[in-house]
Design brief:
heterodimer, A: Rossmann fold, Rossmann fold, four-stranded parallel β-sheet, 14 helices, 36% helix, B: mainly alpha, ABC transporter involved in vitamin B12 uptake, BtuC, 10 helices
């Protein structure tokens, strides 16, 4: 289960193999069969706590391999592509272990990785040490960069990242809040983990930015993940009359908090939550009281970009996903797809497999329009990091639609190219 | 008023902890088996209820009519087929086997239900509350607490007043001697495990209505269950309820001081009990 090599689907592979064998037998084979395959290693949390992030893996890999599986054409030669997928089991130690295995035993030409700092950082570290190029996304860049010992003047040699950062999150939340008339009293619900401590940091997190914008805050402190009782937070928020609540809890913790808040009669006007309300399945588990909860939005099918690989628009990709799986689109679909767009582009410009330095230089020189926006490391906040647009959205209950909730973009000041789907509404 | 509210909510959460712990306490009392898969069995109960709820459209609480007998049969079979073979002088084999069981259950659930977080939808009762002066108490946490008291009271009555309960207690005291009286201890153990899993089913359904669960959610629940059992005293069911409530209240008080102390405060009280009174507050089980 953990060792999957995607080469088209199994049947397609057999057919391609038979065809290649046949042509070889007749002695008229082009260089096709002799070229060494481009090996791309992909470490993904397919099982365990982060598995929601990897939900679209099978679909995405199928889509990508349908496009480039029979080969990337580089300088007149066609190189077959192998994507070696390894499950990190949502465990940083395991992620590091399989990354080393991919580097040392499988000798991958390029590593790609996504889905939270817990999954990205150990893989990127393994690549940096072994001097193998690594492309990553889907982790706020500060947690990727500073946690791994990066400094603004000295970055990394082999590892490059594209996503947004906490400054974008703070800006998006403020833009959403300014659309509703409130008393500007904000309750903070941040856990004692990497994201929680970074976002609630008195120097670089929410507090200084909110104070500067005229908000007052109620911050009872950092709680431990998977607590069963949030009465202390609810009492403090109610005492100070908070009309806005923000935080970055895990999904079960937010459900417990929000259920208890409703039971204890605490009804804020705005609840903007990072992380816990990213996916429709998280929102559905909360039930009808999730209507108008707000969250950061990294990608929607309405983002005005197309895939450089398949030419599909976001709408087309999301529709294909729903058709293939019967499930609603989620934000990682666009990003995991883009990861392989950029990977294919890098390998093409690197002139084929086998040269780590050429691959790394090609990665650094990337300038491509992907499904999630432009990726180019020339204009990032620090070396090795470039940012993709972030906007804000609200979950709305649909009236008998295909799925019970839909994510509507309500704030795009940070990225005006993303169309609005509606206006910010206060919670009931 | 805030303090009264915090403590009251802590008591209610304590009911949930006690319910997590009751099944663990029962089987430890009867057969000295430490079941490391207990948390996963609670989550399994929640998933079975989910299957019944989605399949038949029943209310989660009514789904227990189906889930509880299934879990009883599962516990009975599990004990007869596997766990009875591990019991003996050595405490290690059952520990290792139930640890393995825990991993098997998690991965089986992952395979069948995927990694999605799930919840049992119970309608308006999820967020309904009773107003008492300035304090509002959630109807559902209150129900959870009442169920915990009822389950533990019922178990206690069963152990004290029924013939089977007497057999349980006798087996607990001297499993080697009861065969002389015509009792098959293996049968007794299997029934005890079945009852333990029925309690798991009840705890699982209440947990599933209260918050999200996913296949990996079990082990986090096991720790609090263990602490409640140890604080209350091994083998005592009322002690387990007291242990759960003490844990819940100390967490609430810890959180009131600083949210960072919430879980730590529970652990500190647990350690304090271990140091001052290692046998727990109301121990029943006497070991040689």
């Amino acid at each position: 289960m953990t060792k999957t090599i995607y080469r088209l689907d199994r049947r397609g592979f057999l057919k391609a193999g038979a065809a290649a064998g046949a042509t070889a037998a007749f002695g008229s084979a082009p260089a096709y069969a002799q070229q060494r395959a481009i090996k791309i290693g992909y470490v993904s949390p397919q099982t365990g706590a982060l598995a929601g992030m990897a939900e679209a893996d099978d679909f995405t890999l199928q889509t990508v391999m349908n496009q480039i599986g029979d080969g990337l054409s580089i300088d007149g030669r066609t190189y077959p592509v192998e994507i070696l997928v390894r499950d990190s089991q949502s465990n940083p130690n395991r992620a590091s272990e399989v990354a080393n295995e991919l580097i040392l035993a499988d000798e991958v030409d390029l590593m790609v990785v996504a889905s939270t700092p817990e999954n990205v950082n150990p893989v990127a570290d393994a690549c940096e040490i072994n001097e193998v190029p690594c492309l990553s996304t889907m982790a706020p860049w500060q947690a990727y960069y500073f946690t791994r010992g990066g400094t603004p003047d000295r970055g990394f040699d082999w590892t490059y990242h594209y996503f947004w950062g906490s400054e974008d999150l703070i800006a998006v939340f403020q833009n959403m809040w300014s659309q509703i008339d409130t008393n500007k009293q904000v309750g903070l619900l941040f856990p004692n983990d990497a994201d929680g401590n970074a976002l609630a940091d008195a120097e670089a997190g929410f507090p200084p930015a909110l104070s500067a914008a005229g908000y007052s805050m109620t911050d009872p402190g950092r709680y431990q993940n998977l607590s069963d009782d949030y009465t202390a937070f609810i009492s403090a928020f109610r005492r100070d009359g908070c009309e806005i609540v923000t935080g970055a809890p895990l999904p079960p913790d937010f459900t417990t908090f929000w259920t208890q808040a409703k039971q204890q009669g605490f009804n804020p006007k705005i609840v903007s939550i990072a992380k816990a309300t990213l996916y429709p399945v998280n929102v559905e588990t909360i039930g009808p009281t999730a209507h108008n909860l707000s969250s950061e939005v990294w990608w929607t099918p309405t983002h005005p970009f197309t895939s450089s690989l398949t030419g599909q628009s976001g709408q087309e990709l999301a529709a294909a996903y729903t058709e293939a799986t019967g499930r609603q689109w989620t934000q990682p679909i666009g990003f995991i797809h883009s990861l392989f767009e950029v990977a294919a582009d890098i390998m093409t410009r690197a002139g084929g497999p086998g040269d780590y330095e050429a691959t790394r230089d090609a990665m650094a020189a990337t300038n491509i329009e992907t499904l999630v926006g432009p990726v180019s490391w020339g204009n990032g906040p620090v070396k090795n990091v470039t940012k993709t647009p972030l906007v804000g959205g609200q979950w709305r209950q649909t009236d008998g639609g295909e799925f019970p909730f839909e994510l509507v973009v309500v704030s795009n000041e940070t990225a005006p190219e993303v169309p609005l789907g509606g206006e910010m509404e206060a919670l009931a | 008023m805030d303090w009264i509210n915090a403590i009251l909510q802590g008591v209610l959460v304590g009911g949930l902890f006690a319910l997590f712990a009751a099944g663990l306490s029962l089987i430890f009392g009867v057969m000295r088996l430490v079941n490391l898969a207990h948390g996963d069995l609670i989550v399994l109960g929640a998933f079975l209820a989910l299957a019944v709820v989605t399949g038949l459209g029943l209310h989660p609480l009514l789904s227990l009519l189906i889930v509880a007998p299934v879990m009883f049969a599962l516990g009975y079979g599990l004990q007869r087929a596997i766990l009875n073979r591990t019991l003996g002088k050595d405490l290690l084999p059952p520990l290792v086997v139930t640890f393995g069981l825990s991993i098997i259950i998690q991965n089986a659930l992952l395979e069948v239900f995927s990694a999605d977080t799930q919840r049992l939808q119970a309608g308006p009762m999820e967020t309904a509350s009773l107003q008492m002066g300035a304090i509002s108490i959630g109807a559902f946490p209150l129900l959870t607490f009442i169920v915990a008291v009822a389950v533990i009271g019922g178990m206690e009555l069963f152990m004290r007043r029924t013939a089977l309960g007497r057999v349980f207690r006798a087996t607990s005291d001297k499993a080697e001697i009861v065969p002389l009286m015509g009792v098959n201890p293996k049968q007794v153990f299997a029934i005890a495990m079945g009852v333990s899993l029925v309690i798991c089913a009840i705890a699982g359904v209440l947990l599933g209505v209260r918050t999200n669960f996913s296949p990996g959610a079990g082990p986090a629940r096991l720790l609090f269950a263990f602490e409640a059992v140890i604080i209350g005293g091994l083998g005592s069911l009322w002690g387990t309820l007291a242990g759960g409530v003490i844990l819940g209240v100390s967490q609430a008080i810890g959180a009131k001081i600083n949210p960072g102390f919430q879980i730590l405060a529970g652990h500190i009280v647990f350690l304090a009990v271990l140091v001052v009174r290692p046998q727990g507050l109301f121990p029943r089980t006497r070991d040689k």
